[in-house]
What does this fold into?
Amino acid sequence: REVALAELQEKLNAAMQKLSEPHRLAVTLHDVQGLSHEEIAKIMECNVGTVRSRLFYARQQLQAILSDYLK
It folds into this structure.
């Protein structure tokens, strides 16, 4: 099980590197660090709608990149 978890972490890290910097930052701040959309908007100097959009599209891209692994 630890091997599978380590492999998943590797795949996720590689997939995250394929995202654009704003998308990667939004995912990291929200999903890893647990910040709210409002907090992220202040950090990234954009509006909350932009944060939500970046998270949506980043998650879509991650899902597409990882789709073969997740089957």
